[in-house]
Amino acid sequence: MIVGNKQKSRGFTMIELLIALGLVSILAMLAAPSFAQFIKQERLTKTANELNAVYRYARSEAVKRAQTVMLTKQDSAWLVEIEVADGRETLRQFASNYPTVNAELVNRMIRSTGELNLQSNILISDNDGNTEDYRLCILRSGQSWLGKAAENCA
């Protein structure tokens, strides 16, 4: 037996563990606001992309069917409709999944050539100055693109 030579214990002490947990929690609290902002921006982007996809679907249906397709605003939804013998048939519907995200929807007709009756400039916003809003720009020729709201389809 050797006297004076103690074997060191391995692992963390309770104090070291508490300090590490404290640092991790402080970093998590600092990251939380930016993560919330990221989620808001992603909701806005997703809504803008879905709205653009619904418009492109309506345009392709008009050309494919060789028939006028209506984009009809109903409450906070956009309906893709065609005329049938009994009235109108809804092919697809767009409504934002997020109540904080608004889109300024308008009624439009897409001719069988893919052209619109009027140009459109649709603002997609969540009324939060910290997120970047979008515009769905649609020319009378039928071309569409998503742009930043500040560009105003220029």
Mind sketching the topology for me?
Elements: H1 14-65, E1 69-74, E2 77-84, E3 87-95, E4 102-103, E5 108-110, E6 120-125, E7 134-138, E8 144-148
Antiparallel strand pairs: 1-2, 1-5, 2-3, 4-6, 6-7, 7-8
Membrane topology: Single-pass membrane protein
Protein name: Type II secretion system protein H
InterPro entries: N_methyl_site, Pilin-like, T2SS_GspH
Explain how this protein is built:
The protein has one helix at residues 14-65; strands spanning 69-74, 77-84, 87-95, 102-103, 108-110, 120-125, 134-138, 144-148. It has 154 residues and is an alpha+beta fold. It has one domain: minor pseudopilin epsh domain (minor pseudopilin epsh fold, 3-Layer(bab) Sandwich). The strands form 2 sheets. A 4-stranded antiparallel beta sheet has the order 3-2-1-5, with helices on one face. A hairpin with a 2-residue loop joins strand 1 and strand 2. The longest helix has 52 residues, at 14-65. The protein is elongated. The N and C termini lie far apart (87 Å).
Widest sheet, order of strands: 3-2-1-5
In angstroms, what separates the terminal alpha carbons? 87 Å
Class of secondary structure makeup = alpha+beta
Largest sheet geometry: 4 strands, antiparallel
Share in β-strands: 25-35%
Superfamily at the CATH H level?
minor pseudopilin epsh domain
**Helical residue percent band:** 25-40%
CATH architectural category: 3-Layer(bab) Sandwich
CATH class: Alpha Beta
